[in-house]
TrEMBL record:
<feature type="domain" description="ABC1 atypical kinase-like">
    <location>
        <begin position="97"/>
        <end position="342"/>
    </location>
</feature>
<comment type="pathway">
    <text>Cofactor biosynthesis; ubiquinone biosynthesis [regulation].</text>
</comment>
<feature type="transmembrane region" description="Helical">
    <location>
        <begin position="488"/>
        <end position="509"/>
    </location>
</feature>
<dbReference type="InterPro" id="IPR011009">
    <property type="entry name" value="Kinase-like_dom_sf"/>
</dbReference>
<dbReference type="InterPro" id="IPR010232">
    <property type="entry name" value="UbiB"/>
</dbReference>
<keyword id="KW-0808">Transferase</keyword>
<keyword id="KW-0547">Nucleotide-binding</keyword>
<dbReference type="InterPro" id="IPR045308">
    <property type="entry name" value="UbiB_bact"/>
</dbReference>
<keyword id="KW-0997">Cell inner membrane</keyword>
<comment type="similarity">
    <text>Belongs to the protein kinase superfamily. ADCK protein kinase family.</text>
</comment>
<keyword id="KW-0830">Ubiquinone</keyword>
<protein>
    <submittedName>
        <fullName>Ubiquinone biosynthesis protein</fullName>
    </submittedName>
</protein>
<keyword id="KW-0418">Kinase</keyword>
<keyword id="KW-0067">ATP-binding</keyword>
<dbReference type="Pfam" id="PF03109">
    <property type="entry name" value="ABC1"/>
</dbReference>
<keyword id="KW-0831">Ubiquinone biosynthesis</keyword>
<dbReference type="InterPro" id="IPR050154">
    <property type="entry name" value="UbiB_kinase"/>
</dbReference>
């Protein structure tokens, strides 16, 4: 991508932001210095006619982004999950960004399918409908598999979208570098990292093989979850541009009247959405990161079904454990313990004062707990928590921001079904179960077993490693202090003992059932 083309995109973006009145707000959010704000205005005002006008009924930033097209809309949607970058107000505005776009033609859809699957549409599907939904990256058709007669949803990627996104992402990197150069204060927001995060997320959404894999993994993790389902992936009719899944008949979550008419228990469904989300995040470390109404359905058997696996959140086992303890501490109002967990995990630098930190935690939690139960929001508690931890020197972690933002959406969906939903009551059993399963004696035994398994994998290599170490130790006469037993021997003996203890604990626990 040439510098000229990037400059043109930069000019187009700048003038559109100026013309729609979004420039001020964006500069404010990025805390751009006054000189840059004035320079931007002076340079862009006379040429603002070069920019796009957008829809004047929308708030300024949303108006500018919508006018600039699909990649900007996606970028805005992803930025709405980063209040650390945009500030709360702008992040709220960006949340309303919708990407309803006109569908592309049937001929183009057929050509994409034929190219990706290597066979014409008629050979794969016996029926193939007009598009039923169209967004920035893809559109969805209803179809029937020729070989099995099964009804399916076929998501087809917009032709040329990968290239268009690539061009825009290159321009975003360019803009990020310009911002970093001219607004040193904005460096704190790491603009290039923000674009890299966007780049990575979009790659996950654009290559449908990755989305198929995410759907399959999510489906396997949740196979035993009663009342929850993920549509099966038809791998034979899927590729990087086409994703075919089992068709889900039922009611969209947005259609509250129909859900009521079907006699769905709204309180229970609100509970199910939130409990499933929390349990997937804590138990599996893989959660649906885009749980809005349009991506949830209630199938004919009354199961909650999730659709669209382009944005999934992942949290590693250690972080999950730490956050379960943090939530548990909040649930029991043990702020000192919540503070200690942060220090133990190294999230807050050791030179900070644990009591002061506990006091700050109490100051954010008590006003929330003091509210009427139906207004308690775990998402708000987490948002305040991240603010406080940031003040105490904790690094921002994007996977936790996605968790928090998804919690906001899941709580919103829950409250649209049951306005009196008590989030805390729903969360309690999930967190307690996690703590029981993962922090008790059984969990310690499981961890030790894992450690022994890792050592066992090196089993056949261990004698050789020991021999090599001994030869090396003998090659140069060791200084006096090296006559001690080497560290690795202590380590192996320690692990051996631990393994022995483990076997005894294991046997005892198994005997106890
Ligand atoms: N397996 C399915 N069964 C029935 N309907 C489906 C299925 N998959 C998708 N749909 C319908 O198509 C719509 C769009 O699907 P999906 O969300 O996967 O596409 P998208 O292009 O990623 O859209 P967006 O990201 O804007 O939600 C869904 O809201 C749903 O109505």
């Amino acid at each position: 991508m040439s510098v000229f083309s990037n400059l043109w995109r930069l000019a187009r973006t700048g003038t559109t932001f100026q013309r729609t009145g979004a420039l001020d707000q964006a500069m404010e959010a990025m805390q751009a210095p006054r000189s840059l704000r004035i320079a931007g205005k002076v340079l862009l005002w006379p040429v603002q006619w070069l920019g796009l006008k957008g829809d004047p009924t929308l708030p300024p930033v949303v108006r500018a982004i919508t006018a600039l097209g699909p990649s900007y809309i996606k970028f805005g949607q992803i930025l709405s999950t980063r209040p650390d970058v945009t500030g709360q107000e702008l992040s709220m505005q960006l949340r309303i960004l919708q990407d309803d776009l006109p569908p592309f033609s049937m001929a183009e859809a057929r050509a994409e399918i034929a190219y990706d699957l290597g066979q014409p549409v008629e050979e794969v599907f016996s029926e193939f409908s007009e598009p039923i939904a169209a967004a920035s990256i893809a559109q969805v058709h209803r179809a029937r598999m020729r070989d099995t007669g099964e009804e399916v949803a076929v998501k087809v990627r917009r032709p040329g979208i990968a290239k268009a996104f690539r061009k825009d992402i290159d321009a975003f990197y360019f803009v990020a570098s310009v911002i970093e150069f001219f607004a040193p204060k904005a460096r704190r927001l790491k603009p290039r990292d923000v674009v890299a995060h966007f780049d990575q997320t979009v790659q996950g959404e654009i290559d449908f093989r990755l989305e198929c894999a995410a759907a399959a993994e999510f489906g396997a993790n949740t196979a035993q979850d009663e009342g929850f389902r993920v549509p099966a992936v038809m791998w034979g009719a899927s590729g990087s541009r086409v994703m075919t899944t089992e068709w889900i008949s039922g009611t969209n979550f947005g259609d509250i009247d129909e859900l009521r008419a079907r006699g769905i228990d709204m309180t229970e469904m609100a509970e199910r959405v939130n409990q499933m989300f929390l349990s997937h995040a804590l138990r599996d470390g893989l959660f649906h990161g885009d749980m809005h109404h349009g991506n949830l359905k209630v199938d004919e058997a009354g199961n909650l079904v999730a659709l669209d696996f382009g944005i999934m959140g992942r949290i590693d086992a250690y972080t999950r454990r730490v956050y379960a303890e943090i939530l548990f501490g909040f649930l029991s109002k043990d702020y000192k313990r919540v503070a200690e967990v942060h220090f133990e995990a190294g999230y807050v630098p050791a030179d900070k004062d644990v009591d002061q930190f506990a006091q700050a935690l109490r100051s954010i939690a008590e006003p929330i707990f003091g509210q009427d139960a139906s207004k308690i929001s775990m998402a708000r508690l987490l948002a305040h928590l991240f603010n406080v931890t940031e003040q105490f020197g904790m690094e921002t972690r994007t996977e936790l921001l996605l968790l928090q933002r998804t919690m906001v959406v899941a709580e919103g969906v829950g409250r649209s079904l049951d306005p009196n939903m008590n989030m805390w009551r729903y969360a309690k059993p999930i967190v307690e179960k996690y703590i029981r399963d993962n922090l008790g004696p059984k969990a310690i035994a499981r961890d030790l077993a894992e450690t022994v398994k890792v050592l066992a994998r090196f089993g056949p290599l261990l004698p050789r490693m020991a021999e090599d170490a001994l030869i090396r130790a003998n090659a140069t006469p060791p200084p006096a202090k090296d006559n001690r037993i080497p560290g690795w021997m202590w380590f192996l003996s320690g692990m051996g003992c631990a393994g022995g203890v483990l076997v005894v604990i294991w046997a005892t626990l198994s005997a106890l059932g």
